[in-house]
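Late entry, evening session. Most of the bench is empty. Finally got around to the prediction I had been postponing all week. Sequence below, unchanged from the version circulated by S.P.
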Amino acid sequence: MKSMKNKLYLNKNLYGKKSIQEARKAYGELADIQLDSRNEYWVCSFFQCDYGEERTMLEFENYLIGLTNQERKQNDDDM
C-alpha cells in the first residue's frame, strides 16, 4: 500500500476489484471514494471524509484486508 495525500494505491496482485467495490459500498456513508486503475495499482481517492482522510483511508484499508482474507479463505475452502 502506498498513499499520497487523499489517494490509496492498492496493488492489483493483492487486492481484487470485487473486494474494493464491496468496501467502497460499506464506506459510502462515511466518504466519497472514487476508484481508478493505474498500471499495477487500484487507486482509491478519498473525498468528504467524515473522520478525516488519513483515518478513513487507514480504516478502509483494514476493512479491505479483512474482506480480502475472507475471500481467500472461501476460495481455499472451495478447493
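Two things to note before I forget:
The first strand starts at residue 2 and ends at 4.
Residues 5 and 54 are 8 Å apart (CA to CA).
Will write this up properly tomorrow.
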